[in-house]
Structure formats: C-alpha cells, structure tokens
Fold:
Amino acid sequence: MAETVLEFQPDLNLDLSADRIQQEDMPTEEMLVNMGPQHPATHGVLRVVLRTDGEMVLEAVPHIGYLHRCAEKIGETLQPYQYIPYTDRMDYLAGMNNNFAFALAVEKLSGLEAELTARVKYIRIIFCELNRIASHLVAFGTYGLDLGAFTPFLYAFREREYILDMFEATCGARLTYSYITIGGVTHDVPENFIDVCTEFLDYFEPKVVEYNNLLSHNHIFVKRTANVGVISQEDAIDYGLSGPVLRGSGIKFDLRKAKPYGGYDEFEFDVPVGSGEKGRTGDCWDRYIVRVREMEEAVRIIRQALEKLRGTAGQETLHKKGKSLKLPEDEIYFEIENPRGQLGFYVAGDGSTIPSRVKARGPSFCNLCVTERVCHNVLLGDMAAIIGSLDVVMGEVDR
Amino acid sequence: MTPEEITDILKKQFGAKIAGFKFETAHPRVEVEKSAWPEVARFLKSDPRLQLNFLRSIASLDLLEDEKFVAIYDLLSMRPPTKGGDAWTMENEFSVHVSTERSNPHIPTVAQVWPAADWHERETYDLMGITFDDHPDSVIDQDGTHPRRILCADDWVGHPLRKDYKFPMEYHGIPAVTEFDQTRPIH
Structure:
C-alpha cells in the first residue's frame, strides 16, 4: 500500500495568538492603567502602573512608599525594648514574628540570648507558629477573595479568631502584640493555655482538609492559578525572593532548617515546596499550596513545643536586663523565617542603650521586586492572581 | 567556609583592593575598595568555591565623625541539594563593607550582578543619599544622575536617615507642626 499522503497540510506558521485575532476583530492601542493605590486586589496601598494593549499587560511597574513612616529613623531614637511596638506595625499580620526577629537580633548582639530560659524559647516558638497559621489563613482567605471565591475568606477568619482569642488571653492584644520583647516575653501564658491550644489544634487540623476541598482543588481556582506567573528557580534566587514565594519555585530552603535559630533545631517538621502538581513549578498555585501545607507543619511544631513547655513550669519568662540593655560597639545582621520570608534586622550599637542604626530587610519588599519581571505579557485578569500569590503586606514593604 | 577562608581567597585574587577586615565581631566582614567593588562582586557570585548568589540586604551607615558613608552588603550562598537529600543548603554567609566619602557619596552599582540589588540600592539612595553609579533605573534631575527614589516622594528634599538631616517644616503646604507652640517635630 502506498504511503498515505494527507491532503490537508496544516500551516505550522499559522499565528493563532490572541493578538492576531484581536487586531482583526477590534483594533486596540497601548494604554497606561493605574492599578491601585486603592484597589482591593493589591492588599493595601500598592500602585502598579500597567502598560496594556487590550487585555494584555505588556509591562507592570510597582510604585511603593504610600505607607512609608521611616521606622528605621525612629529606631535610632529609642531603646530596643521601646522599638518593639514599631516592629509590630511593619508586617501587621505577623506581629509575633517581627517582634521575635528584632528581639533575637538585639539579644544576639548584646549576648543576652544565652541567659534566656527554656520556657521563653518554647513560648516564643509556639506564638510564632500560631501567628504563622493566622497569617497564612489571611493569605489563603484573601487569595480566594482576589479570584472571586468569597466563602474561603469567611472560613479562614473563623479559625483565625480562635488564635487571636488565645493571643488576647495571653497578652491583651489581638493584632499588634509587642509580646515577644527583649529578654523574653511580657507575660507568662495563662494557666489553661496548653489545654486551650491543644483543643484548637485538634479542631484546626481537619479544617485544612476542608480548605483543600473548598479552594485548593477547586477547578475554577486551579484554572485561574496554575501555569500563571511562573517564577523560575534562577529568577527566585537572583531577585532575592524568600519564604513561600521561593519555596513555590521548588527551592527547599527554610532558615528554620538551613540555619536554625531560637531553638527550632529541636523540632521535627517538613518544608513543603512547590512541584508543579497542577501546572508548572513556580506558578501561582504552587506558591498558594505551600502556604496551606505550612499551616499543617506549624501544627506539628506547636504540638511538640507544647509537650516541651509542660516541663518548664515556673521558669522566669522575662529577663530583668531587657530594659536597661547596653549595646556594644558592634553590629549584627540577623534573619529569621517570617510567614512571608526572611525578615532581617541590621542593628548597630555604639556603647549606649540606643542603637545607632536599625535596618529592616522586609521579605515583602524583596518579593515585590519580582513583579516587573513576572508581569510581562500576561493577561490583565491574571494580575490579581500574581500579586495575590506574592502575599505582600504593604506595611512592611514601605516600613 | 568561614569568613576567614573567604577573605583569604579574596586577598589572593584582589590583593590591595581588599581594604580591611574584621572577624572578632557579631558580623564578620571585609572592606572592599569602592572602585573594585563590581569586579569583586562578580567574583563572589561566580567563583565555584564561594557562589554567593543571594543578596539578602543592603544596609547603610552614616559615620558623621569619620566623614564617610558605608554600604553593607549581606550575601548568602544557596546551594542546590547534593546526593541524599532534597533540601537546599546555606553554605556561606558573608558581608562586605564599601565606604565612600561623605561629601560626594558614589558607589558603583551591582544590580547587574544581583538583580535584587536594584530595589535595595534605590532604597539606600532614597534614605541615605548614596548614589549608585550606572544603576539601571536612574533619573536625571537637579541632584545629578541617581537611582530613582522608591519610598519617599519623587520631589522629596534630602535623605532622612542621614544624621544631620533637618526635618522639613512643610511639604506642599502641609505643615509639619502639630502643636501650637512646637517649632519643629520632636524626634
């Protein structure tokens, strides 16, 4: 039998891109669009200037600074323990972690860290991880909101409420805690804290399955996020990304594992990474699912820490030196793993009680700088998905 | 690798361009001549022994008495997993001080080496007033060619983190005086 010859020869050079169809159907022209500063999908006062052509975004340039308070200058006028409330207001969704980063940097600089009790160590880790869950719950809820799913937001805030109640019972505040301070924590935990916390963890763990059924594997949600806003491993490192944004690109790097601080080396937990389950590695869905899985890991850490906390009853929780600490003529740069990434503090002392320089390296600030690189020839509708998946908090970007 | 070993490698490669070092501190670092800094930066990133591929932060110091500014670069080497594990590791941590005279602060940019430096350098210019030459996002105005401001408004005068910064009394008609008898904001 003779070789079959296809009569229809497909033209492989045929350009089927949206661009060509648009040009034939409806002429478009380039237009500059301001997305923000007041836009629900930018999570605060972020302005992104978009150069658009029809539905395509050719270029996106973020403009920041609307919330700038020069917190670093304020740091040069206050003692470290007085500066703690200002760190709360940087990443206001993860106040505990911010307190922890600054307190630990100052304690390492002044050598106070060695004098802290085991109880302080475990309380700090428990509250940081609880705050990590609370922060990721907001990220999870608002990300659904960005993409048109209202219900997950209500679910997330329902669970977050329990965590905030625990914080309120312990230190009196629900958002800006100033709980972890130089030399320990301001109050010991309430008597029934271990029981209440265990009860919450038992309640919370099945909820993560519910979130996955509700949003993570929702067909519409997957369509909106998979294969969108892919960040390669090279870009992730070049642009200094960190936290779930870095791990979403498949880089298994977590400071709690790579360089354990504050006692994290005593706990067993995994570091979830994105692996391109629904699309390509490093897309919006990968970054999203890393946050959901980190909540489960945080539960594991808290359970272990609660066990260890039981054995430390009666130990001192606040070192007296914290309020009269003299900083040596030296400097330190110290980073911890915040819910959003690596939060670093550079502190320089000059022999007095007031530091001569405080600098914060905010993870949101560094994660946001990749926007220009990623939002290049994407659809306008994907902008909300990409910016939401970076999970920036403008209070920390602008400081 | 310890900071001492990294410094030895750098000294062998660059000799006198490594202006100094300090190890007995919470923040071990070397000081690099500012003219050689881009060359040293490329070496730090590309040398297979060092591979400091991750720029964590650029801090800055105003040393009013010594008449100089210092830019502090904190670097990290993030290495892909080797056999028997999937976790990326942190091999080296290192930091570099680059100082410049206070009267005319200029440092060559390293944004071509680490793209992350782009925003950090813009922030450092904005708040401390160190001009990074050849920055990819530069503007030209009455202050000369400098990186675009990032946190303050484009028409802001001065650099707030300098020790001799004078707080403005008003901005576009908005007074900075909050109390009736207060002549300047209290800080």
